[in-house]
Design a protein that fits this description.
This protein is of the alpha/beta class. The protein contains 20 helices and 21 strands. The structure holds sulfopyruvate (SPV) and magnesium ion.
Length: 567
Amino acid sequence: MAHNDSNGATDRFESLLTSKARTLRRAFEGNGVVRCLGAHDGLSAKLAERAGADAIWASGLEVSTAHAVPDANILTMTDYLRSASFMNDAVDVPVVADCDTGYGNVNNVIHMVRRYEAAGIAAVCIEDKQFPKVNSFVPGRQELAAIGEFVGKIRAAKKAQRTQEFMLLARVEALIAGWGHDEARRRAHAYVEAGADGILIHSKQPNPDEIVRFIEEWDAPVPLVIVPTTYPQLSLSDIQALNKVRMVIYANHGLRSSIVAMSNTFKEILAEGTTATVEPKIAPLKEVFALQGMPELKDAEKQWGHTGKDPIRAIIPAAGQPQDAGLRNAVGGGSVAKLAINGKPLLQRQLELLNNTGIQDVRVVVDQDAGDFSVDGATMVKKDGAVGSHMVGSVLAGLQSASLQAGDRLLVLYADILFDRTIVERLSDCDGDVTLVVDRAFASRSASGKTVDLIEASLPRASDGRHLASEARNQLQNIGDSVTGDAATHEFIGMALFSVTGVQALTAVAASAPAGADLTWCLKQLLDGGTEIDVLEVERGWSEVHTLADRDRVAAQLAGAPYLVAS
Ligand code: SPV
Ligand code: MG
């Protein structure tokens, strides 16, 4: 009896357990042929599914080989089940598990059926050989079990299964053992009688004659399964035309192709003394991560990963072009986000810094015609002309796409700054509705003729000498053009954190922003409207990149050049 929790989780699990088996059972009732590809682990199963396999054959030969041991019951049921479970977890298509002889006698078969069924495996296949078996293609001993003994295993297996959908395939090895057609047919009929849901008839002949004869003579209403490893001349359309085979198993071709591919790659690396020549021929790491499910993992962290603090999403307004002609040239007319610093785009550097402080959801707002520049892990948002020009419009566009949830916080970060990670870490500890990061070491920079966003804070600026940050709350008193050089205490660095309430206030003032308004304008409006704005004081530890000289200085510092403190 299924108990349903508020998310329907139990029902989902129950149907997951049975739905693959049901899919397979339905396919057996139809007229088509289920194409199974052999696999041995999650990756090979996933590749088979990606190639279009209808089902996965959890091959004993493949799993044994992947462990570098003979296919002769050297591994235990637990080993095979573990491999089959990895395959099953990796794919949405049904898994048919090769369970050799059932790993012992009837009691082993009963245990096996319960364990495989509980693991969500759609079907198991047992063969009528003696335990321990050896692979059917190995010359020499291929000892068959007595018919009565195998019939007992089938009956026990059918009794042991708990769901209707789970299927048992009985595999006839009489042709493999050289006992001929009559024996094969006699056994197959006895197994159908005992309740088998399908008969796998195996042959190792180098042509299809033997198997075709068996199929043509087959007169029971139970589907056949074949494994055309040694008789590849028999194509899928030939099999379909025979109209009694409902499953074909291409049992080991992925394993064998990987042996060639891996061997060649390994040999080439050692022969060449470099991996450079193999690199273009092998899967890029991006594909490796996709196969692992890394994008899903990141999404889950974004959605549910909790650091104990309210999650922060970031918006980087990166529309427009740099004002400086040199920089404009360097980025080929696009956003400063593209600017390479020591070979890595500025945006990628920002993203890595944010990600490393636990901020995973980063939206970068670019112009509608910004082309396809993007950085892995960032969501690029194309700004619609309707959301207003300049930076405020970009922040609004980012907000529209971010759909903040209750409890989320928003970090707004200028596209043209780099910063020490500790600044973001300290900022994320702040709990005001609006907090600006401000630098007290601004005087020398404004004196050098740069335009800086000066602010006035409630606590006085430290004079010369050593300085201990105050524990008292420091609040914004003024920002924008009306801050005079004398009254200025700090410089706004272009990084601000908003609570949901802060975001609501920001959105309200941004809606009435004039063309060309920037974030500073909005902050001034908020302040004048009575919003309390905190400031987080830092001393250096960041840099804007407004000119090529800035870029070169930042590049040198990132590469380890001494940090030159201007006097
Ligand atoms: C397997 O893949 O392990 C099989 C099929 O049992 S065969 O190797 O052809 O016997
Ligand atoms: Mg096998």
